[in-house]
Amino acid sequence: MAGSGPRRATGWRGRPAQEEPPSWSSSPPGDRRPGTLQRRRRALVRILVVDDDPRALALLEKFLRSRGHQVIAARDGSQAITQFVAHDPQLVLLDVNMPERSGFDVLAEIRATSQVPVIMVTVRNTTEDKVRGLRAGADDYVTKPFDLDEIEARIEAVQRRYLADAPEGQVEVGPLLIDHDAKRVLVEGRELRLSPREYQVLAVLASQPGRVLAPPEIARRAWPRDEGTSDDVAKYVYLLRQKLQAACPGLELIHTVRGFGYRLEPPGDGDEGTGTQLGPGPR
């Protein structure tokens, strides 16, 4: 519109993004200090917003920033991948209808290396498209037009689900140290370079050291969208063993219990009779 900047982008509804004061709640029971208030906690995240509509992109960026989030913007699929690699976002709002590289193409590239939450945003309202997006690895799917409050609510809901499953802090098993906050793995103080999937499989094993985990259980937890198989688990266990051996020759942490599964256990903690092997695991 001439003479004034647009407050809403085409295909969007609801109130425009605007700055508003922080939300406060009263003190918890037992805190009797007069006039005490405490800020209501809300997870603030680094969000990659991808949309080829400049008005929609600007509106979402302004709205999310007003809520305290850090926003990285991308105008097309190629820029989305570049920004994703450069900034490691904690959540992605991804438009489907983009020229050259569609949102589905971008989602496939993201899922090749990351399980970061992705919310698909599109004007497509068919069940077929929604099913395609969800089966490709999207965590949620919303259609335009929608209220901006709905976007915020969906971001919060996806983050709650994601954070509920995410391990925190550090896990130490013998010479192995997994720092879940930094996403680093150290073996006797030396950093181990792992792919995201190798990291997830190792994290599942390390979550219950000494316990035998069946391949289907490992697959279910490392591939939360039911994409993994027992053969995939065997492949990644083999790769992990190779990297652990290369980093620390002679070290055996992942033990195979034939016919049952795998157990992560430091040397000397009772691996007798497990049938430890370097090749793919139980069949």
Short description:
With 283 residues, this protein is of the alpha/beta class. The chain has eight helices and 13 strands. It folds into two domains: 124 residues, Response regulator (Rossmann fold), CATH 3.40.50.2300; 95 residues, Arc Repressor Mutant, subunit A.
General description of the model:
- The structure is a single chain.
- With 283 residues, this protein is α/β, with parallel strands linked by helices.
- It folds into 2 domains: 42-165, Response regulator (Rossmann fold); 170-264, Orthogonal Bundle (Arc Repressor Mutant, subunit A), CATH 1.10.10.
- It has helices at residues 54-66, 77-87, 103-111, 127-135, 148-165, 196-206, 215-222, 230-247; strands at 24-26, 37-39, 46-50, 70-74, 91-95, 118-122, 140-143, 170-173, 176-179, 184-187, 190-191, 254-257, 261-264.
- Helix 6 crosses helix 7, helix 6 (196-206) crosses helix 8 and helix 7 (215-222) packs across helix 8 (230-247).
- The chain starts with 23 loop residues before the first strand and ends in a 19-residue tail after the last strand.
